[in-house]
Write a structure and sequence with these properties.
The complex is a heterodimer. By secondary structure, chain A is mostly helical. The N and C termini of chain A lie far apart (about 65 Å). Chain B has five helices and no strands. The chains are: A mainly alpha, B mainly alpha. Chains A and B meet through helix 2, helix 3, helix 6, helix 7 and helix 8 of A and helix 1, helix 2, helix 4 and helix 5 of B.
């Protein structure tokens, strides 16, 4: 069982204790982060069994590489995150300070990156019989730099806090996410839902930051279009501007 | 700034990482372009809505399995540490 004296400890203290060999501290860290790791794995893989496998792999991998995790900040810049090579692709760039997104702790971001890489391995296995590999799909294709312009433009009829309470809106969110290509869905989930930075998302997926930014924008625009067609007020619909003008 | 140029800078504006000079230009454009203003609001609302979407709870049997696996692996990786 977890040591009750650890419950009130800060995350940094728990990580330090775990790095010194304290299992109860690591168990508390597991309890604090497991639902989030499981959530992202489930959203990416859409399969409960695979999501459980990825969650377990994430924490077992974290145990093995705990000593290498450097979550403390030193000097004027943040210490770069290190993470274990769960997948064979994509080396981590560790030469720049990192900006952790609000709401995501350094340890949490580290775990999410491990989970994303483990989930990618599952996707790659699933795709071994398909013509298009995930690696090919993750490359920016010709013409993909061209952005789709918004077509249905209207203020939403209700604010997000109210919309989030409605079951049919949650179904709409799931459906819109399902309609995204895998490459766009992965990036949107890690960056916007889980709060990883652009750099962390790029590291997790073995992509360049430029690639992540292009994909993220396309994902945001596609989701906006789909949600606004349902949630937008038709009476307040605006015509897009002629894009040749200012 | 044209609407298409604004579109290309949307990520940086929404994430608050845009250069201050470009940010001013961005806001000047939106002040005179209602469709762009609404698109930016829509994008922000989209992100807020997904961020606040339901939390996935761990299935209880899996919680137990995960704890058992963590303890077992911990003993394998750190054999000197005894579980309490």
């Amino acid at each position: 069982m977890s040591n009750p004296t650890h419950i009130e400890q800060s995350e940094a203290d728990l990580v330090r204790l775990a790095q010194q060999g304290d299992l109860p501290a690591f168990e508390i860290l597991t309890d604090r982060h497991a639902h989030r790791v499981y959530g992202v794995a489930l959203r990416i893989l859409r399969n409960v069994h695979d999501a459980e496998d990825v969650t377990q792999q994430t924490f077992l991998s974290a145990i093995e590489h705990l000593a290498a995790f450097r979550g403390r900040r030193s000097g004027s810049g943040a210490a770069p995150l290190e993470f274990p090579p769960v997948g064979e692709s994509g080396a981590a760039s560790q030469d720049q300070p990192d900006e952790s997104a609000p709401g995501t702790t350094m340890f949490g971001a580290w775990l999410l990156k491990i989970a994303a890489r483990a989930a990618l391995k599952v996707i790659r296995k699933r795709r071994t019989v398909e013509m298009t590999s995930l690696d090919e799909a993750l490359e920016v294709g010709p013409g993909e730099e061209h952005l789709p312009h918004p077509e249905f433009i209207a203020d939403w009829r209700q604010v997000p806090d109210v919309l989030a309470q409605r079951a049919e809106v949650r179904e709409l969110l799931d459906r819109a996410l399902e309609n995204l290509d895998e490459k766009h869905r992965l990036i949107f989930l890690l960056r916007d839902v889980e709060g990883l930075s652009i750099r962390e998302t790029a590291e997790a997926l073995g992509l360049s930051e430029g690639n992540v930014k292009v994909r993220l924008l396309r994902a945001r625009l596609q989701l906006r279009e789909e949600l606004t067609r349902t949630l937008g007020d038709p009476e307040r619909q605006l015509r897009p501007h002629d894009h040749s003008s200012t | 700034m044209k609407c298409s140029e604004l579109l290309a800078m949307l990520n940086e504006y929404v994430d608050g990482t845009v250069d201050p000079a470009i940010c001013e230009e961005f806001e000047r454009h939106m002040a005179g372009c209602n469709p762009c203003q609404v698109v930016v609001d829509n994008i922000r609302n989209t992100i807020i809505l997904y961020k606040g979407n339901e939390v996935h709870e761990l299935p209880i049997p899996f919680q137990k399995k995960l704890h058992a696996a963590v303890r077992k692996h911990w003993q394998e990786v750190c054999p000197g540490d005894k579980p309490e």
